[in-house]
Amino acid sequence: MKEIITKHFAEDLITLAGNIEDGELVTDEEWETTLLLDFGNAIAAVKSKEDLFGTVKLFLRKLNIVRGYAIRMINDDGKTMSTYVHDRTVTAADDPLILEVAKARYPINDGIQNMVLNSGGPVFLTIDEEIARGCNAGYLHFWKSVSFIKVVGMPLQTASQKWGILWLAMEEQNIPLVESLCSLISIAISNIKTNEQVMVLKEKLEQENRHLNEQLGHIYNAEIVGRHPKMQDVYKLISRVAGATSSVLILGDTGTGKELIARAIHQASRRSNKLMVKINCAAMPVNLIESELFGHEKGSFTGAFERRTGKFEQAHNSTLFLDEIGELPLELQVKLLRVIQEREFERIGGKTTIKVDVRIIAATNRNLEEEVNAGRFRADLYYRLNVFPIQLPPLSERKEDIVPLANFFIGRYSRQNGLAIKGMTPEVAHMLQKYDWPGNVRELEHLIERSILLSNDSKLREIHLPGINNDSSVLDITPPQALEAMERYHIIGTLKRCSGKIGGEGGAAEILDIPSTTLHSKMRRLKITKKDYK
Question: What pLDDT does 7 receive?
Fold first, then answer.
């Protein structure tokens, strides 16, 4: 904040410069102006109360006409004033009276302070006269005890706010000097207060960030690893939306951890006492998805030998996670929209309307806006789901998180397999950070799991990245062959983990976060047969 110093002061500076140039002797007035110029330069560097005290102490004591000074500030209550900075040389530091005055909170409307604050200019007081007319403020008696005869009070204010009063013990009525001093000190106080507010806000944000991280660590059982600013933004969004009932749409590439974020939102919500219900819209045949979502009555279709409760019923008073919502057929999108809007449905073959209270969290790796434009996704359903979108960054955009994630997975799979592997070598860490991770966190996890099983050391010293010369820390990728080799290796490893199961719950397609039809196509293209993963 920059305040305009008085016109008189500015003219003095011009005059002083001219006199010095002409070699004339410097008058007392010009000397004061020089002092004020130096004082202004020093004030510009003031950042704290102690800085202000040091600067005021240094410069005011150079003015022979000033016998003592004090700055009294308006307190937060807006009704009282207290000493902010005062001259510590006018009496002994342990003088009981000065200690009392320095700590006391005097009412603004005491007949003196309010008069000065509202004056708009210097107010000169004679101590004995004020006491004689009945003013009993402690600071008046203190001034008398140190033999002050006259004092001048000047309101400290900027264009937007009154801050307090500058008191100077001086008998000469040098109004331009006092006004210039107050202009400079007011600017300094305004800057100090602004800086203090910034520091308070910074500390508050840091505390909130620490609290949020602790809360996230507790709620999510340390499953979410990531300190990158983009992940910090995700955490803040989770914290903000968790307590609401609004629909959430989680967007991100395959393997970025969309389900983990959905579970985090659920665990932080008021519905956390019930399990989150999940359905993968891409993992089931079209003719069974409706039954999975809404259930069916016995005999409603061939093979319906008993009544089945759908996911919506199971998720009553809880959360329903619709994974890969972009794969849902258009005819089912209409029915899903109705349930989300009306909060009611009928089972297949049923006549009873079932009312539910379900919080919807959907996820997709598709660009739903493009799907809407292409006619593959209903615009009304998109707008209903996209109330609160959360975009997850790919691992390639937060490479600072790769090593912490890798260490997390090393610890997890070491414990699961009864191994004592602690961390990795710097060479392995370097290779992990240089790789682009097209499969994101899921690819990293599977690679670490495999490397743990192949390791015979207390540290991970070797990592087999597709298309990389593992005797070097330099990437040796030759697209597209290297990418195909990596994809083939990744799919085969996943199929082995799933004992060859491709579709359905717990199948490779679900783990890879792609439709089973897409996985079949990839397997044909990459020439993956049963002998590769059985």
Answer: 42
